[in-house]
Specification:
Layout lengths: L2 E3 L3 E3 L3 E5 L2 E10 L2 H14 L5 E5 L6 H11 L15 E4 L6 E5 L6 H6 L2 H5 L4 E5 L12 E8 L5 E8 L1 H14 L2
Parallel strand pairs: 5-8, 5-9, 7-8
Antiparallel strand pairs: 1-2, 3-4, 4-10, 6-7, 9-10
Helix pairs in contact: 1-2, 1-5
Amino acid sequence: MPSALPGHGTRSEPTTLKIKQIVHRDFVFDASDEAATVTLGKALAECLPPRAVVALIGTLGAGKTRLVQAIGEAAGMDTRKVISPTFVLIHEYRAGRTPIFHFDTYRLRDEDEFLQLGPEEYFDRDGWTFVEWADRVENCLPPERLEIRVEATSTSSRRFQIIAIGEPYSRVVRDLERRLGS
């Protein structure tokens, strides 16, 4: 049953299921405007573990990069420097309290091209790794990760489905529910 978030949208009740010993838990956050996306980014920056891998999935213009900007801003980075890595494939941001490694796989032909970028080296570093268009390279991602599906629901509103794959990320989703739920 959706419940209202004062000034920020609605959320739905979480669901949990266990498949092959991997815990899946999700939380839906409806951002009524860009300020709500910033609120979500701040909450994520407060509860992402070190070495988090976040798979971002959504259409062009859905808000994947804007969410990374909001997380970077909450971590102390200048958002003007956090831009989509579409043409360079990866950006590294180290100005905040936690390094951010930001991949964009939109222009890659296949998973082999992604593997040539050495993503596993980034996954093992202290910092947060964000992979835009992660559904294109899903088989190359760690088995435990946070997946965020972004959908534009109007010109200014977005729906974020945040899916924990693995117990460490279930804790993140529970924390987000506590921070953003009513």
